[in-house]
Amino acid sequence: MKDTLLALSAKGWDYLATSEVPQPEPKAPGELADAVNTVLGIASWAGTAAGVAGVLITGVMMAVSVKRGEGSEHMSRLGMVLGGCILIAAAGPVVTFFFQEN
Q1: Whole-angstrom Cα distance, residue 24 to residue 95?
Q2: Closest to 59 measured CA to CA, from 46, 84, 78, 72
Q3: What secondary structure letter does DSSP report for 20?
Q4: What tens digit of pLDDT does each residue of 68-101 get?
Q5: Is the pTM here over 0.85, yes or no?
Q6: Which residues of 27-50 are buried (b: 16+ CB within 10 A; e: fewer)?
Q7: Helical ranges in the chain per DSSP H
């Protein structure tokens, strides 16, 4: 650290203030973007499939409980499953809204 400060004082602090800072483009390389899009597509598909399975399983559990005469709180479970489905469906648009390029 001391050597860096000595070097800067030898060049002068004006050099540090006037030098240009590189501004790289915030874009991923093409191959990386394709791989990330593939992974995100698979994750989106899996989330949708899990949501459908969750709704079906909750429906089956509700039907079995009614047949047995048991009262259970399946509506809260169904609400959580549907909330998860909404979260999965809204993830892409929410991220796009907050990180859109101007």
Answers
A1: 22
A2: 78
A3: P
A4: 777 677 888 888 999 998 998 888 888 888 887 6
A5: no
A6: eeeeeeeeeeeeeeeeeeeebeee
A7: 2-11, 13-18, 30-68, 74-98
